[in-house]
Fold:
Amino acid sequence: MNTQRLVAVLMSQPVLSNVWWPFTLKRGLTRQHAKSLVLWLNSSLGLLLSFGNRQETRGAWVSFKKQSLGELPVLDVRRLSARQLRLLEQAFDALCGQPLLPLPQMAHDPVRAKIDAAVAQALGLPDLTPLREQLAREPVISLQPLRQRR
Structure:
């Protein structure tokens, strides 16, 4: 976890891997939907749900079982309005080329803050900064017990 920066990426062509799982959206969903979902998954809310569905391991390693990922609660991009999709797509396009800091540094990551701001704006949510700051303190992410952090 100390080097991980993303939990989801959008690829322009089919890919194959042995350490992560590719997926495709259902028929009828567009690239705009895909961009919205990837932005959501990399937001503090998406990270919170992802890490809440992890398998326990030791140290900096986190395991995700394929079945757990298939059941992961995510933003239903099919229910977003055209305006919401447009806002999320614009944020994705503006931020996709900017590097994110490793997850333990997310509380001070300006790009992650912009992702959270875009998700909050599009979905009518309050500021996600407090969630991002608390998530960065989570021992699985920070690799430090809470009692040692101040």
About this structure: The CA atoms of residues 35 and 89 lie 6 Å apart. The mean pLDDT is 83. The first helix runs from residue 31 to 41. The chain has seven helices and no strands.
